[in-house]
Amino acid sequence: MLAKTAVTSLCAARHAPLAVAARGIANIPAHEYHIRFDQRVGRKRPAQDVLDRFKRLNNGMWIHAHPGRHKLRYMKDDTWQTTSLYYETCTK
Fold first, then answer.
1. Do the beta carbons of residue 56 and residue 90 sit within 8 Å?
2. Cα end-to-end span (Å), the chain
3. What is the pLDDT of residue 86?
4. How many CA atoms are closer than 13 Å to the CA of 13, on its beta-carbon side?
5. Which GO terms describe its cellular component (predicted)?
């Protein structure tokens, strides 16, 4: 009997919430996770990796190379080797 009342009194007891420290400012690199803005031009600066991977044609279409086109080429058949060198159109 005594053990049962002790357990219920422990469960019924209220505890004050622990003090949680304020979260510090995250150390985010300058080139990731946010939009860079060019004040001279007045618009967003493009990310360099996008410029490296994608190319814009004169008619406005975007193209990029086939991913994995150089991976294990000696194991692939002739059709794959020729079509892997083609560029793919995309909407970026």
1. no
2. 71
3. 92
4. 7
5. mitochondrion; ribonucleoprotein complex; ribosome
DSSP 8-state class, residue 25: P
The per-residue pLDDT for 43 is: 79
Locate the domains of the chain by residue range. Answer: 47-92
Compute the distance between CA of residue 57 and CA of residue 88 in angstroms, rounded to an integer: 12
Contact 62, 91 (CB under 8 A): yes
Neighbours of 31 (CB within 10 A): 11
pLDDT in tens, 10-32: 555 665 555 555 555 656 565 55
Q: To the nearest 10°, the Cα dihedral for 17, 21, 25, 29?
A: -90
Q: DSSP letters along 35-65, please?
A: --EETTTTEEPPPHHHHHHEEE-TTS-EEEE
Contacts of 44 (CB under 8 A, 6+ apart): 35, 36, 37, 38
